[in-house]
Design a protein that fits this description.
Layout (H helix, E strand, L loop, with lengths): L6 H5 L5 E7 L3 E7 L5 E2 L6 E2 L2 E14 L2 E13 L6 E3 L13 H10 L6 H7 L4 H8 L12 E11 L2 E9 L4 E6 L4 H8 L10 E4 L3 H10 L4 E4 L1 H20 L4 H7 L3 H5 L7 H12 L2 H16 L5 H17 L6 H16 L8 H17 L5 H12 L1
Parallel strand pairs: 2-6, 8-11, 11-12
Antiparallel strand pairs: 1-2, 3-4, 5-6, 6-7, 8-9, 9-10
Helix pairs in contact: 3-4, 5-6, 7-11, 7-13, 11-12, 12-13
């Protein structure tokens, strides 16, 4: 009976002749060579099949069956009869001057998509961290055009000598567009002005950052600026929290212990409270009239943020501002001031469904990447790593 040798198929390399296979405790070792054939001289172009000599090269391949794989390629060096040039035979799996196969290089670059450190990837592939980073440095992303719905946000990156970086995303198609080295207004305006399709941007979604607002007004005068609802809602939540902290200072030690960790209870939607939580909340609100008043103001604000359209929202918002300013709660002054300053942009969020939700999710993933890598100081590599993970 004849048995088919499937070692070459299992190896996944084209046109190779397996000469010998062995293994030890840590790796598989495969000795191979390519079939002899005519080659064109890289100098004069003449064909030759005259062999000058052989040399053996050790090559790292992707791991298999839980062990490293090493290939030992018996390379031929051909000699040209016309010009005397000596050159190595060509193969499809090993780039010139490399000691690792093309597919191992590709696998290393692919592993950088995961939120893991470069040292982890290096250990996984049995190479140095410097070598892993050298391969990843071949990756580069560029932004050619801006989307119709542009989302702008900042995050703490601590890269390239700047504390904060700026992230640009497509809020409709949910993809990262680019990462900017800082959040400076002049640099952002200079960056956006180089795009030829700036007029195609219809919506710009931002948080309540005045620099982003000024950049959007200068670079995208025809676009509708939208404030993310979450950043508006938390203004009322922060105001309630300031009232709670102030009122707890005037309580006795026993009541302060009772009210400890009440922040989550006060922020929880009333329709999701359990019976014991409702009873505890009733007792807490009974301790302070100011806290009770702030609690209902916060709930009313969250209710109006779910208005079906901008007309209803504008009416409810005007009524809420009047009640907040008449409540004599100084902790809500910052909230009402912000609504006065950003009123029309807040109402725009009831016209379109776009938010900064996807952008905030990208920022959370970036924080995980930073924590795993113990920080990424090189901005160019940091930017490409974020874009590579999201691509």
């Amino acid at each position: 009976m004849l048995y088919e040798d499937n070692t070459a198929k299992l190896l996944g390399l084209e046109d190779v002749i397996i000469k010998k296979v062995w293994e030890d405790e840590s790796a598989h070792h495969i000795e191979l060579e390519l079939p002899r054939r005519k080659h064109s001289c890289p100098c004069c172009g003449a064909e030759t099949d005259r062999i000058h000599d052989y040399r053996k090269q050790k090559i790292k391949d992707i791991s298999a069956f839980g062990k490293d794989v090493y290939l030992y390629l018996r390379k031929r060096r051909y000699a040209c009869d016309g010009c005397g040039k000596r050159f190595y035979e060509k193969n499809s799996f090993l780039p010139r001057y490399h000691r690792m196969t093309s597919r191992k290089n590709a696998r290393i670059i692919e592993d950088f998509r995961d939120t893991v450190s470069a040292s982890y990837i290096a250990r996984k592939h049995n190479i140095s961290t410097t070598t892993a980073l050298r391969y990843f440095n071949l990756v580069n992303y560029s932004c050619k055009a801006l989307p119709e719905v542009l989302s702008i946000d900042e995050f703490k990156g601590n890269a390239g000598g700047e504390k904060y970086q700026t992230i640009l995303t497509d809020a409709r198609d949910r993809k990262i567009i680019d990462i900017l080295p800082n959040r400076k207004k002049a640099d952002m305006i200079r960056y956006f002005r180089r795009f030829k399709n700036r007029k195609e941007v219809k919506y710009v979604v931002i948080d309540m950052n005045p620099h982003f607002r000024e950049v959007a007004e200068v670079c995208f005068p025809q676009a509708t600026i939208v404030i993310d609802r979450y950043h508006v809602t938390r203004q009322a939540i922060w105001a309630l929290e300031r009232v709670r902290k102030e009122e707890q200072k005037h309580l006795s030690a026993d009541w302060r212990r009772f009210c400890k960790h009440s922040k989550a209870l006060l922020n929880k939607p009333p329709n999701k409270l359990k019976e014991d939580e409702q009873e505890k909340l009733r007792i807490i609100l009974g301790l302070s009239t100011r806290l009770e008043q702030a609690y209902f103001l916060k709930n009313d604000f969250l209710f109006l943020m779910h208005s079906p359209n901008s007309d209803v929202a504008e009416e409810l918002l005007a009524d809420w501002i009047y009640r907040a300013e008449s409540s004599h709660l100084p902790e809500f002054r910052e909230c009402t001031r912000a609504i006065h300053n950003w009123g029309q942009l807040i109402l725009n969020s009831f016209i379109v469904p776009f938010t900064n939700g996807y952008t905030e999710g990208c920022n959370n993933k970036t924080k995980v990447l930073k924590r795993v890598c113990y920080g990424l100081r090189n901005f160019h590599r940091f930017r490409n790593r974020i874009l590579h993970c999201a691509s």
